[in-house]
Automatic annotation (TrEMBL):
Residues 80-181 form the Late embryogenesis abundant protein LEA-2 subgroup domain. The keyword Transmembrane applies. Coiled coil: none annotated. Keywords: Membrane, Transmembrane, Transmembrane helix. This is Two-component response regulator-like APRR5-like isoform X1. It is a single-pass membrane protein. The keyword Transmembrane helix applies. The chain crosses the membrane at residues 24-46. It is found in: Membrane. GO terms for biological process: defense response to other organism. It comes from the Eukaryota. PANTHER family: NDR1_HIN1-LIKE PROTEIN 26, OS05G0367900 PROTEIN. GO terms for cellular component: plasma membrane; plasmodesma.
């Protein structure tokens, strides 16, 4: 006697569901692969170069100790930002700047408004960095006095933020970037021994890491 084996409706439904899931997984994998290839081709073809920053002006209006370890500071900066890419625009987000002296931060983090930069476009950015009662190391006054005698002061300025590349209508994810500037500021004519330090500097090229 021969036996006839037939699949139950439940078995057919499970098989059909497995086939649909397999097809869906294949479609998602294909889309993901296409997106990765597209991003890779953009990077390979366009070679987006990192933005260039330079410190065009730095003016110190106040830098004096109210107590041995508390500092009042006011520094105005002007940066020149340049996008060297011919086919790639740049969005700048979450920008913040601060000043440092002898490897210690001397101002609070100051926000800079976000902006978009077209192909090969340049923009000026300004920021006023301040620190009221900002805590510093006990030897800060000695270091400043030594620099006052030398007639110059070396300050570091840092800008941190995130950028996004724009190609046509496509916009990339956010990439963290850092801008570091080192500037030598000379004592101004009003910087008498009893007055706050007043100094300025111009034309400093900065390094950018993305």
């Amino acid at each position: 006697m021969s036996q006839v084996f037939s699949k139950s409706p439940k078995h057919c439904a499970e098989r059909q569901s497995f086939t649909i899931s397999k097809k869906l997984l294949f479609v998602l994998s294909s889309v993901f692969t296409i997106v990765l290839v597209f991003i890779f081709l953009i990077r390979l073809t366009l070679h987006p170069s990192k933005p260039r920053f330079s410190l065009t002006q730095a003016d110190i209006y106040q830098l004096n100790l109210t107590r041995p370890s508390l500092l009042n500071s006011s520094i105005q900066l002007t940066f020149l930002s340049n996008n060297p890419n011919k086919r790639v625009g740049v969005y700048y987000d979450n920008l913040q700047a601060h000043a440092s002296y002898e490897a210690q931060q001397i101002t609070v983090d100051t926000p800079i408004p976000p902006f978009y930069q077209e192909h090969e476009e340049s923009n000026f950015l300004t920021a006023v960095l301040q620190g009221n009662g900002f805590p510093v190391a006990p030897g800060f006054g000695y270091e400043v006095g030594r620099d006052r005698s030398a007639g110059r002061m070396v300050l570091s300025f840092k800008v941190i933020g995130k950028l996004r590349w724009k190609v046509g209508t496509w916009v990339s994810g956010r990439y963290r970037f850092n801008v570091n500037c080192v500037s030598v500021l000379a004592f101004g004519p009003s910087a008498a021994p009893s007055s706050p330090f007043i100094g300025s500097s111009r034309g400093t090229r900065c390094s950018t890491d993305v």
